Amino acid sequence: MQTTLDLYTYEIITKQQLDLIQKAADCLARSFIGVDVSGKWVQEPMVGQLNIGYEDFYKFTKDYLESTIEQGYCAVAQDRNHNVVGVLAGDTNAPEIIGEDIFEGSFYDMNVILRVLEDVDKRFMEDYKKRNGKEIKDGELLHLFMLGVTAEHNRHEIIQQLGNSLITKASSQGLKAVLGEATNPKSIRVMEKYHNMKKYKDVEGNYIVHKYQDNSKLSGIPSNIADGTYILIKDL
């Protein structure tokens, strides 16, 4: 019997690997926009609700990878034909709150997603400061920003291998925790199950969550698909 390690190879990519960066950006963009997995449509709920197009999202993803790749936290899974079928991309930057619209034209609605992420990040940063008496600095946390899998088979194993490689590296480099914004229950379940990440509770014991039903642009997302974006964390 073949194991998933026989079917896929894994590596953390570098800025010299331009072809792999493009393939990784494509894999992420396609998985967020939506892919057919064995007859089932899988997509990121906010991207689907806002009807964001592939070209814009690909450019956004590629720009992100190019700006963070040298930090060494973009892992890819490739099949035997060297297609990138899974990507987990992160960075060690402290969360940044821009607080204004930065996307325009056909990509304008990406500002809605940006504001959701900034809302939960800001509340997390405020809570972090309350707990620790200081601001988060660059290089303290691994921020897992984008996860995309286009493979039809062994999807969970791919997520597990990608996450293991980045979390092991973060731990070996002395980072304090792994942080992510999970935008749907599937992401939460997978990160809880395979990487022992947990929904973050603030000092009052409340989850940090941006509820879609309270957002006029996102209230059309059915609550059985996703109810909000949560902060997930794992101490290292």
TrEMBL record:
InterPro entries: Acyl_CoA_acyltransferase. It comes from the Bacteria. This is Uncharacterized protein. It comes from Fredinandcohnia quinoae. The lineage of its organism: Bacteria, Bacillati, Bacillota, Bacilli, Bacillales.
